[in-house]
Amino acid sequence: MELCEFQSIFCEALEKNGLEPLSPAKTEAFWAFTLHLMRVNEHINLTAIRNIPDVITKHYVDSLLASAYIPQGARVLDLGCGPGFPTIPLAIARPDLKICALDSTDKKIKFLFDATNLLALPNVEAVSGRAEDAVIRKRLGEFDLVISRAVARMNILSELCLPYVKQGGAFLAMKGAKGAEEEQEAAHGIALLGGRVIASHEKELFLLDGSSEPRVLIEVKKEKKTPPEYPRAYAAILKKPL
Length: 242
Ligand code: SAH
Hints:
Blueprint: H1 3-16, H2 24-41, H3 52-64, E1 75-79, H4 87-93, E2 98-103, H5 106-118, E3 124-128, H6 134-137, E4 143-149, H7 154-161, E5 165-175, H8 179-192, E6 195-206, E7 212-222, H9 234-239
Parallel strand pairs: 1-2, 1-4, 2-3, 4-5
Antiparallel strand pairs: 5-7, 6-7
Helix pairs in contact: 1-2, 1-3, 2-4, 3-4, 7-8
S-adenosyl-L-homocysteine binds next to β2.
């Protein structure tokens, strides 16, 4: 694929999903990222989605659906960012954001670090570690918004994410068809962690073949401080989810 075909597919995918077109410079940054992702993905397994139109819709547009719920200038933590979703699309589209991208897999963070250098993205900090690690816990309560896609069920995810949100900030969980069910299961834990679900934004991700997939963005406001024992060690979380 060439840049001009990429531009036209991306433009169509954004329009189908009711999103604003991107400037040529931002589209070129997405193109450079795509080439890097495809190249590295040939020998390191970063994503199972290998076809560029699907990368555009299922990774880029899907990530950008969250943008409407992120306040201007926010300090964001993307917990379990993998090779950079939603970090990279948000960082390119929203230079006002400062994004800390955390993942427990070193090779994914190394990839992301190289990608941010290649794209000269000054607003991404790539950090290797687990949310429950002592060194990462030093940043508890630091972020205006914690976002996470495809990392864990909502009850487990809430314990990993909500402690990192500052009081008055929010946690945004990017979920698929099972979002509503997971939200109910997590209600008790969310309250215990100082949060309250303020909205469940139901969306459709429109693909290029005319089909669509359900998405839900669960917005949790952090109203009270999280008790200091959270997040617990991962084994304890799994053994007895909140
Ligand atoms: N958000 C990306 C990746 C999802 S895969 C996307 O939507 O494509 C889930 C990722 O979460 C994996 O890369 C895994 O390494 C990471 N992860 C799982 N538990 C974690 C934890 N406790 N702390 C940090 N990263 C974690």
